[in-house]
């Protein structure tokens, strides 16, 4: 990072949030390598010193070795839950600001993430502006309501997907828990997510 960029760190970032002076080490953990690299480049442009990881094992190792002040962790990784990385980060640095990303946005997952130590929670796809705002948010004011809240159909679809994942993708067990006919559930699961 150039000297000029370091001087600018005390001013306002692209999102209008106040930017802390000095280096801002950020760990990004996501098994979607293309997304991870794209977000990493975008966050570097915003003044963060980025380290990328693509697994729970890598993420936990970097968390212990680097003890970053900021982290963005995907909830579902190929080798386990991102919450393990959140716990590893929290063990070495209590003041770290940790954002959990997930493709399955729901209240139960958000609560679990916060209990383990996440600072905030963003549903995917989240862009770099949203991530930066969440990382630098002081937490003093309530966030503004979303411009495009989820539709009732989308909320229902998200709930069905969450129960389906909790049942290890077992259609019969999911249908039983949702008190829904198995064929109806199969039709819903075969469709794409409704638009917001």
UniProtKB/TrEMBL annotation:
Biased composition (Polar residues): 1-10
Domain Response regulatory: start-end pairs: 25-139
Keyword annotations from UniProtKB, A to Z: Phosphoprotein
CDD domains named in the record: REC_RegA-like
GO biological process terms held by the UniProt record: phosphorelay signal transduction system
Single Gene Ontology MF annotation: sequence-specific DNA binding
Residues that bear 4-aspartylphosphate: 74
SUPFAM superfamilies: CheY-like (SSF52172)
InterPro entries registered for this protein in UniProt: ActR_PrrA_rreg, Bact_response_regulator, CheY-like_superfamily, HTH_Fis, Sig_transdc_resp-reg_receiver
Region Disordered: start-end pairs: 1-23
Protein name, per record: ActR/PrrA/RegA family redox response regulator transcription factor
Annotated organism of origin: Denitrobaculum tricleocarpae
């Amino acid at each position: 990072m150039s000297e000029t960029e370091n001087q600018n760190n005390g001013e306002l970032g692209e999102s209008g949030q106040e930017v802390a002076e000095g280096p801002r080490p950020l760990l990004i953990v996501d098994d979607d390598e293309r997304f991870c690299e794209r977000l990493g480049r975008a966050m570097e442009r915003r003044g963060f010193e980025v380290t990328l990881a693509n697994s729970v094992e890598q993420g936990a190792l970097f968390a212990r070795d680097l003890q970053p002040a900021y982290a963005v962790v995907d909830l579902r990784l190929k080798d386990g839950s991102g919450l393990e990385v959140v716990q590893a980060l929290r063990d070495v640095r209590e003041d770290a600001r940790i954002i959990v990303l997930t493709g399955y946005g729901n209240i139960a997952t958000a609560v679990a993430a916060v209990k383990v130590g996440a600072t905030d929670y963003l549903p995917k796809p989240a862009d770099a502006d949203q991530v930066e705002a969440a990382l630098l948010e002081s937490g003093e004011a309530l966030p503004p309501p979303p411009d495009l809240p989820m539709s009732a159909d989308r909320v229902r679809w998200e709930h069905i997907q969450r129960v389906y994942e909790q049942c290890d993708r077992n259609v019969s067990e999911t249908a039983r828990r949702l008190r829904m006919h198995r064929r109806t559930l199969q039709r819903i699961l075969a469709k794409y997510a409704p638009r917001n």
